[in-house]
Amino acid sequence: MEPSAAIDAIAEPEVAGTQQRLDAFTHARLWKNPCGFAARFNYLALRYNQPLYGWVEERFGLARPEFVVLYSLGIMEGVTASEIASSTAFPKNTLSRAVSRLTKLGLITRGTDASDRRAQPLQLTAAGRALLDEAMPRFIAFEEAMLQPLSLIEREQLSTLMAKVVLGMFHAGDGTE
């Protein structure tokens, strides 16, 4: 059995048996698609991102790129907008506007780098940290809910396989050639 058929044989009946039924097109897009991995990956990403970033905008008045800057600084302080752009694939000008707004709101500060005067390492302020601390439990809980059908071993396997796919992209280029 080829890999995509094996996945369909395992996954399709589970999807059909869930309480939340998929419409015929979504079912076809997820299970009959020649780019099934990308379709499923995008489906999950949208189901995660849309409600969470909608909540961020409603609760805090921040657009997605603005929150991405805060989130990024929560992972590692002192990075630049260019580094965040490179890591997230948001355009530099979009992140530049986000950084300007977050600075005006007092959620982040821009520093200076002695070795590169053009670089401006970013830091969370106390207000930025408080906002992030309020938001993160919702992001974590949403991810936990998405992963709930998986056992701990399956979660570890999924994480390992996703890491392998991501790392493979660094060796193979971006696939657009």
From TrEMBL:
Keyword Transmembrane among UniProt keywords: no
Top-level lineage group: Bacteria
Keywords for the protein's UniProt record, in alphabetical order: DNA-binding, Transcription, Transcription regulation
Record InterPro entries: HTH_MarR-typ, WH-like_DNA-bd_sf, WH_DNA-bd_sf
UniProt domain HTH marR-type: residue ranges: 38-167
UniProt key word Transcription: yes
GO molecular function: DNA binding; DNA-binding transcription factor activity
Protein name: DNA-binding MarR family transcriptional regulator
Organism taxonomic ancestry: Bacteria, Pseudomonadati, Pseudomonadota, Alphaproteobacteria, Hyphomicrobiales
